[in-house]
Amino acid sequence: MKLKALVSLGALLGGAVMASAQALEVSDPWVRAMPPGHHSTAAYMELHNSSDEDVRVVRGQAPGTTERVELHTHIHEDGVMRMREVEYIEVPAGESVALEPGGLHVMLMELPAMPETDSEVEVILELDDGTEISVQAPVRDHRGGGHGHGH
Amino acid sequence: MKNDKRLTALLILLILLLIGALYWVVVGLGESPGGAEQAGHQQLELAAEPVGGDFTLTSKAGEVSLSDFQGQVVLIYFGYVFCPDVCPDSLARIAGALEQLDEDQQAEVQPLFISVDPERDTLEHLDHYTRWFHEDILGLTGDPEVISDVADRYGAAYRRVDGDEEAGYLVDHSSFFYLVDRDGALQEILPHGMDPGELAVALQDALAWDEQPEQ
């Protein structure tokens, strides 16, 4: 099971290695509000690659919020959620990839202070060609709301 | 001579058993991935058939037993405070579901968050964390053996993953919502990522279902 999941993850992530165009659009970025004193949270967003070449996000940064940022995914296996760091997030040419709870996300760790709800956190995505994309991600309190996947 | 025959028979039996065991291991290992994958994350293989049942753990305010909530519908979630993504998401869903209940209904539902990381989750931290999501959510922890036993009985799985990072370890865990009826019996296991509205309906159904007289 584990092996198979790893293999399929590898296949998923190990597609074509190509130079990325500067055509990665980031929409609806947000950071999950967490209790004061909590030291980690995550940034979510929608990535769209409108170019005809695959793009990889290889690193995340959150200057001013924390120095420790990782790209993570969740592997669902036998009912168990396994969160793991990934080397990159690939956005195939012409496609979109959602970073969302329970899936891919930009993990913000070792936060000296939890950013306040409705404040904005700068998140920088570094692509495999060195391009950096900066977005302002509002801190959202999702208690009571979920994230609108139902209905 | 007689002994030799017996020995031979015994040997043959042993070999057959060994072949059987090998077959089981090979086929078992070979087949389980596909099967588990098809079943997706709603399938639990790590634990035996969930039976639920009473348990006693500790909250910041002291000992808490499931039977303390006799007459209420209980919603149980297993997770941990350091859990960076899945637990906050699930707790937010529980909070969202509770917000959709009216006051009377809310008073009849007791959500419990059981820590699968008793080493790090102090009572103080647990309480602060769960109540931030919703005032009604009660954080519980206890001896690792007791938690392990409760998790087994509810069909929850978890496993500590030691990384090389100084930031600490992660805990892989299942992410279900366990719905316990007013009599303390495990009634339903709800899937990870359930919409807060659907979760609210499940709670309302459990409340209504339990109001009916026993047959």
What does this structure look like?
The complex is a heterodimer of chains A (about 150) and B (about 220). Chain A is mainly beta and about 150 residues long. Chain A has one domain (about 1-140): PCu(A)C copper chaperone (Immunoglobulin-like). Chain A has one helix spanning about 1-15, and strands at about 25-30, 40-50, 55-60, 70-75, 80-85, 90, 95-100, 105-110, 120-125, 130-140. In chain A, strands 1, 2, 3, 4, 5, 6, 7, 8, 9 and 10 form a 10-stranded mixed sheet that branches. In chain A, β1 and β2 (about 40-50) form a beta hairpin. Chain A starts with a helix and ends in an 11-residue tail after the last strand. Chain B is of the alpha/beta class. Chain B folds into 2 domains: about 1-40; about 55-210, Glutaredoxin (3-Layer(aba) Sandwich), CATH 3.40.30.10. Chain B has 6 helices and 9 strands; from the N terminus they run αβββααβαβαββββα. In chain B, strands 5-4-3-8-9 form a 5-stranded mixed sheet, with helices on both faces. Chain B has a two-stranded antiparallel ribbon with strand order 1-2. In chain B, β8 (about 175-180) and β9 (about 185-190) form a beta hairpin. In chain B, α2 crosses α6 (about 195-210). The model of chain B is unreliable at about 25-45 (pLDDT under 50). Classes of the chains: A mainly beta (about 150), B alpha/beta (about 220). The interface of A and B includes residues 68 and 74 of A. β5 of chain A pairs antiparallel with β7 (about 170-175) of chain B.
